[in-house]
Amino acid sequence: MRFPTHPDPKEVLVDPHAHSKFSDGLSSPLRMFVHARHRGLHGIILTDHDTVKHWGESLEAARRLKMSTVLGVEISTAQGHLLAYFACDTQPRRVARTLRLDEGMIHYMDVERVIDRVRDLGGVVCVPHPFGAFYPLGGKYFDKVDGVEEYNSWMFQDSKLFHNAFGYGKRHGIAALGASDSHYPYTIGFGATAVPAAVDFSKPDWFLHCVRQKLTRPIVHQRPVHRRINWIKATVSIPLNMRYNVKFFRSKWRGYWRQRYHEMISGGAKDDSKKE
User: Fold this and answer.
1) d(Cα 129, Cα 131) in Å, to the nearest integer?
2) Residues 6+ apart with CB under 8 A from 170
3) Rounded to an integer, what distance in angstroms lies between the CA atom of residue 128 and that of residue 89?
4) What separation in angstroms does the CA of 189 have from each of 91, 192, 200, 231?
């Protein structure tokens, strides 16, 4: 398959999946936005893991650099990772409370419950790296979400086990995205999403509109030299990823023993259907 590598003249590029120091990234939101502008991107959306604490600095960086953004978060569900996007005027406290974010541990709600809650909050949901190596959701939920990340720049060499998802957006009638999944400034824009330049970027929900109307298109910006950079910078990301993985397994362990405790005092299995 021939991968799209350039936007049309009537399109601009945004990177809708990147991380800052508020989760397992290397840099501040401002520095991520600065590098995105240097790469020629029209916008960038930071999607730190299981937190909304980066939202304030993201909005300020976008305003300061005259770039476009919306509010994003990558949520760790019981089945795998899920990207959620919200309009810029969304209240972070309401999102954090509804999705149980920033509570000191990861709660791993069922993915369908998360999808419903995101939509109740006015957001859209997309599946990142569905066939990747880290916390993939697979293709089971494509018919339940608004979009799929067809290209993730960390998977620049497809294999039988791990590969990108080109064509799955059209196959399931949902939006198709491309993204860098960058955890440091040097790889921003290696994957990107093309959106029409005619979109009204002044609206707080411009990206949500693009996803809902399927106006997005994945773009592959990664060349052989970029792949070498990704391999080199991967050594930098190891301690950053370890920070997230420690939190991941600690939350899993605490959740396991909490479940065992409830079973012990109730004399049987806990009824999760009544939870929340």
Assistant:
1) 6
2) 176
3) 24
4) 28, 5, 22, 16
Which of 48, 49, 39 minimizes the C-alpha distance to 14? 39
Q: Report CA-CA distances (Å) from 87 to 59, 124, 182.
A: 11, 10, 22
pLDDT digits (tens, 9 = 90+) for 77-110: 999 999 999 999 999 999 999 999 998 788 889 9
In 3D, which of 215, 136, 131, 201 has the Cα closest to residue 165?
A: 131
Long-range contact set of residues 36-40: C-beta below 8 Å, sequence gap at least 24: 36/67, 36/188, 36/189, 37/65, 37/67, 39/188, 39/189, 40/13, 40/189
Distance CA 251, CA 239 (A): 18
User: Could you tell me where the beta strands, DSSP code E, fall in the chain?
Assistant: 11-18, 43-46, 71-76, 81-86, 124-127, 147-152, 175-179, 191-196, 217-220
DSSP three-state, residue 191: strand
- Among 58, 19, 213, 218, residue whose Cα is nearest residue 124: 213
Classified as helix, coil or strand, 85 is strand
Q: What is the pLDDT of residues 225-259, one digit of tens each?
A: 655 666 565 555 555 566 666 665 565 556 555 55
Helix (H, G, I), strand (E, B) or coil at 267: coil
List the alpha helices (DSSP H) in 13-108.
Answer: 29-38, 55-65, 92-99
Buried b / exposed e across 238-262, counting CB within 10 Å, b at 16+? Answer: eebeeebeebbeebeeeeeeeeeee
Q: Domain ranges for the chain, please list them.
A: 11-229
Is residue 150 within 8 A of residue 176, CB to CB? The reply is: yes
Domain at 11-229: CATH code: 3.20.20.140
Query: Look-up: residue for tokens 């999403």?
Result: 193
CB atoms within 10 A of CB 60: 13
Cα distance between residue 214 and residue 195, in whole Å: 9
How many CA atoms does the CB half-sphere of 18 hold within 13 Å? Answer: 35
